[in-house]
């Protein structure tokens, strides 16, 4: 192998390594790799501002009128909340209430949260979660 091929190979390996490290850092920063222990517990004032239930779990989701996937999310959340009547449901329009989105670091729509009665975040998903995912996150909170 000539020296130029070795240099090209070393540069490619270094570039892929750097891309991997940057990707991991961005994923970790966006919260996709956070464990439940790292999720915030809301203050009483934030619980009231967001309209969360203090008697049981709350499904909170952010959407907007122009968001196509938000329609699908509404159907999933409505179905789950109909099956589990002890679960409160709050929908926040991100355009109408950007301060709430900043409080929870919402960067994409739709974003869904599940909070326990104490304001502890127990679940977070970007996109449209399945009904089974929501139920499996909610059922331990109802026991």
From TrEMBL:
<dbReference type="InterPro" id="IPR013766">
    <property type="entry name" value="Thioredoxin_domain"/>
</dbReference>
<keyword id="KW-0812">Transmembrane</keyword>
<comment type="function">
    <text>Participates in various redox reactions through the reversible oxidation of its active center dithiol to a disulfide and catalyzes dithiol-disulfide exchange reactions.</text>
</comment>
<dbReference type="GO" id="GO:0045454">
    <property type="term" value="P:cell redox homeostasis"/>
</dbReference>
<dbReference type="InterPro" id="IPR036249">
    <property type="entry name" value="Thioredoxin-like_sf"/>
</dbReference>
<comment type="similarity">
    <text>Belongs to the thioredoxin family.</text>
</comment>
<dbReference type="GO" id="GO:0015035">
    <property type="term" value="F:protein-disulfide reductase activity"/>
</dbReference>
<protein>
    <submittedName>
        <fullName>Thiol-disulfide isomerase/thioredoxin</fullName>
    </submittedName>
</protein>
<feature type="transmembrane region" description="Helical">
    <location>
        <begin position="6"/>
        <end position="26"/>
    </location>
</feature>
<keyword id="KW-1133">Transmembrane helix</keyword>
<dbReference type="GO" id="GO:0016853">
    <property type="term" value="F:isomerase activity"/>
</dbReference>
<feature type="domain" description="Thioredoxin">
    <location>
        <begin position="7"/>
        <end position="143"/>
    </location>
</feature>
<keyword id="KW-0472">Membrane</keyword>
<dbReference type="GO" id="GO:0005829">
    <property type="term" value="C:cytosol"/>
</dbReference>
<keyword id="KW-0676">Redox-active center</keyword>
<dbReference type="Pfam" id="PF00085">
    <property type="entry name" value="Thioredoxin"/>
</dbReference>
<keyword id="KW-0413">Isomerase</keyword>
